[in-house]
Structure formats: structure tokens, C-alpha cells
Amino acid sequence: MGPKTSKIDRRSAVPLYSQLKRLLVADLAVQGLEPGDRMPGEHELCESYDVSRTVVRQALLELEHEGVIRRERGRGTFVADLHSSRGIGGALVGTFEDIQSEGTEQHSYVVRKGVVPATALVARDLQVGVGDEVVEIERIREVDGVKWAFTRTHLPMAVGLPLLDLPLEDVSLFGILERDYGIRFERANRSVEVGLAPETVASALEIAAGAPMLVMRSLSLDGSGRPVERFVGYHRGDRSRMEIEVRHAPQEG
Questions:
Q1: Do the domain assignments include residue 149?
Q2: Which of 4, 113, 124, 240 could join 235 in a cystine, given CB atoms 3.0 to 4.6 angstroms apart?
Q3: Segment 157-169, tens digit of pLDDT
Q4: Nearest-CA neighbor of 218 among 230, 226, 228, 227?
Q5: Which SS3 state, helix, strand or coil, does residue 38 take?
């Protein structure tokens, strides 16, 4: 695999296979290996890192379960594609449907929900007074068993209050509001920027505070232009990407 970032520390209390996992991930990044690139075989890894085949196999097994690598019988071990573009602003209907349409195993669950006073930013977006009561819902989304995104949603009381009495796991807030309560979403203003994980988000996603993230902010409006939903979605930077399709518009005349 070329130059290695560091060596196994045999004086450390950290198990050898755990150290090897960390080193392999770091070395993949340093050497610029991309999804689909072949990794060295077990024998070569044993020699490169001076560990037993048992240690190598345990490290590779866990990396495979975590989606970092993929192993194909008779072909070898390859770098997997950790990044996902699922659910990042791709459709008005929301993240749940975006992910679901990809055919992957996904799960969403509520971290907390309740009534909170509107901050200045929330009040501005939802066109309510600062300190007015609004509904707040925080959820985590998993894709293929990995915690991928943390979303914090705010809704005006008239729109969001019915949601507080409903189970909101593995459902679309958009779908419930449109189907059961006649709230029609006509358009959304969205932005995506690079940010760093706040402590609360990092803790929820089990990543390091300050880790890079793709942050999407969205304000949805109904046909009359009334704000009906505001959310901020924090997507793990190491597992997210934006995909943009550009088409040439034929010139008239």
C-alpha cells in the first residue's frame, strides 16, 4: 500500500486489530485510493504492518461491516464508496422519500419533539414573533445501518401540533401533513454549505465534534407563500456528496 502513516503500537492497550483498522483507513486516504480500487491481500497486509493473519482478518471483517471496504469472493478486497447523495435536497417531498427511492435499507427515528420558543432565526423564517411557541422535531436518519444525518425541524403551531401525538419513526412529515391534514407544499428555498458538527449533532451521530458536514437549510411554503416548515439537516461529510446534473439548453433561433 505504499508509505504508511504510522506503525502498530504493541505497548498500547488498544487491541491490535483496532489499531490496524485505524491505520488502514488513514493509509487509504493518504494514498488517494478511490472507490473500486483494489487493496493488498491478507498476506501483504501481514507483512506491511507486521501483524498476524488473525489480526488482519478481524480488522477487515469489521471494516467490511462498517462499509469501508467490500470483499468479493475470488476477486479480492476493494475500497467501498462511503459517500451518499441520498436525500440531500433532491426533491421537495423530503429526505425520507429520497432515501427510500434509492432502494437502500434506511431508518429514521425521533430524538426529541415538543414545543419550544422561537429563536430569532426561526421566528424570521416562520414569520412569527421571537419567543412565540413553535413545534420542534429532531430526528436521526440511518442508511444501511449507519447514522448519516441529524435533522432539526420547526413548524408553526397550527401546522406542527398534530404531529406531536403521532409516531414519527420511518415516516415522512411531508406525507403526513399533506395526506392527513391538507397542508400543501408548493415550493422550498434551500441552501447547502460546508460546516462543522456542533457538539449536540456530533453526539447524536456518534462522530467527533467539529467533524466536517454538509449542512442543508430549507424553508418550505404553501401555495399562498405561507411558511409551513423549516429545517436544518446535518449530513456527515465523510459519507455525503452532492450530485448535480447540468444540461445544455438549446438556443432559440
A1: yes
A2: 240
A3: 999 999 999 999 8
A4: 230
A5: strand
Report the alpha-carbon distance of residue 129 to residue 133 in Å, rounded.
9
Which candidate, 69, 4, 6, 7, places its Cα nearest to that of 38?
69
pLDDT digits (tens, 9 = 90+) for 116-133: 999 999 999 999 999 999
Axis crossing angle, helix 16-30 with helix 42-49, rounded to the nearest 10: 100
Nearest to 32 by CA among 3, 67, 72: 3
Q: How many C-beta neighbours within 10 Å does residue 74 have?
A: 4
72 domain-assigned: yes
Q: Angle of helix 53-65 relative to helix 42-49, nearest 10 degrees?
A: 110
Do 100 and 74 lie in one domain? The reply is: no
Residues 152 and 217 occupy one common structural domain = yes
Is the pLDDT reported for residue 227 higher than 90?
Answer: yes
DSSP code per residue over 190-235: EEEEEEE--HHHHHHHTS-TT-EEEEEEEEEE-TTS-EEEEEEEEE
User: Any idea how long the chain is?
Assistant: 253
Q: What is the pLDDT of residues 10-27, one digit of tens each?
A: 888 888 888 898 888 878
Q: Looking at residue 74, which CATH number applies to its domain?
A: 1.10.10.10
Tell me how far apart the terminal alpha carbons of the chain are, to the nearest angstrom: 56
Contact 115, 137 (CB under 8 A): no
For 117-151, what is the HEC assignment? ECCHHHHHHHCCCCCCEEEEEEEEEEECCEEEEEE
**Sign, CA torsion 53/54/59/60:** positive
